Give the backbone structure.
Amino acid sequence: AWPVSGAERSSQEIWESFSQCFTPAVKEVVEFAKGIPGFQELSQHDQVMLLKSGTFQVLMVRFCTLFNADERTVTFLNGQTYPLPTLRALGMGSLLDAMFDFSEKLGSLGLEPDEMALFMAVVLVSADRSGISDMRAVEQLQEGLSRALRSLITCRRPDDTSLFSKLLLRLPDLRTLNNLHSDKLLAFRID
Amino acid sequence: PKTHRIMTLADHISHIITQDFARNQ
């Protein structure tokens, strides 16, 4: 319902708007993580390490709903909608193409909001383990959350035996997205 | 004149997480 913007705004302004969207989104992932049963039982060090390595991937899952694959537009969290060519001009083409592709694949699985939330929890605790001090505790948390996701999906779709494995196949995609794009630059105006 | 702080997505994410946990200690 938002007017497609971009024409009258400079690429610098769009870039700043894109960058500023990340700050609240990251804070929301941190709050989300604290709500995951068992997450706060991890050491503070391990909580920080998992968040640092997994937040970008959780954001990729969360941002899926902002990508309209049919109309090739992206709606930022501030409500502004941009056509893909406008954003491509900012040099974010490769990241956006990868996110469109990922959001189409994940979107096709038709997850319910609670299933998506549980999947994001699994994504976070499945993130890169470098720097983790208590590996056993993180693995136990991951196993518990994966079991919960599997049983939630199985009980809702008893005859769709492939959905859970299709979901797990998205984890390497997310890791690739993270490795390819988390070094993208953001710009914050300092007045 | 307007100046800009440029940082990678990963560094920006790390910065916000470190700030959050420091504030809540």
In short: The longest strand of chain B covers residues 3-8.
